[in-house]
């Protein structure tokens, strides 16, 4: 499968015209930048957990990672809610929700949330020390969420948002604007 470019422009793919996004779609896209920075930071930290064979107890590193993941989730949740509560329903009127792009986006939201929740719960339930194997297993949930969301953001930026720009009428874009601007305050 051909990968879409991973740059910040509004290109849908090579050779196609740029699609300028309306303000609410551009706002959703801009929110990906800080979210991507946060999740890249926690993924770098998660990838290092369990790597040092000298360390016998990884609970402190997992606790520090937990704080980063919790901060990320606090930022991700409102963003996801704006997409799920405003953008997806508007698009679903045209392309449905049971299959296709909206179904994929909702599935990926859920998959990422499940992995983040599994990570947070596993750290919370740790008793005693966490050896390298257990720590790597726990950190893998954060890494799986990162992988899902990295791909997910790319799909939204390069496919879903341009599709919405071309699909939604002025009234629907105004409705989306009210939802995105109200909720992002």
TrEMBL record:
Entries under Pfam families matching the protein: Hemerythrin
GO cellular component, one term: plasma membrane
Annotated ranges, domain Hemerythrin-like: 24-164
InterPro entries recorded: Hemerythrin-like
Protein name: Hemerythrin
């Amino acid at each position: 499968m051909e990968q879409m470019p991973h740059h910040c422009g509004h290109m849908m793919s090579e050779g196609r015209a740029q699609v300028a996004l309306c303000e609410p779609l551009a706002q959703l896209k801009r929110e990906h930048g800080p979210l991507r920075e946060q999740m890249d930071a926690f993924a770098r930290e998660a990838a290092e957990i369990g790597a040092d064979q000298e360390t016998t107890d990884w609970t402190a590193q997992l606790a520090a990672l937990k704080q980063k993941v919790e901060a990320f989730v606090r930022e991700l949740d409102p963003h996801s809610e704006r997409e799920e509560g405003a953008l997806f329903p508007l698009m679903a009127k045209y392309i449905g929700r049971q299959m296709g792009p909206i179904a994929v986006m909702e599935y990926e939201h859920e998959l990422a949330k499940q992995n983040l929740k599994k990570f947070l719960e596993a750290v919370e339930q740790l008793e005693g020390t966490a050896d390298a194997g257990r720590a790597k297993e726990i950190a893998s949930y954060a890494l799986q969420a990162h992988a899902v969301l990295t791909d997910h953001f790319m799909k939204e930026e390069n496919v879903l948002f341009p599709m919405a720009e071309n699909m939604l009428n002025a009234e629907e874009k105004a409705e989306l604007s009210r939802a995105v601007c109200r909720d992002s305050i």
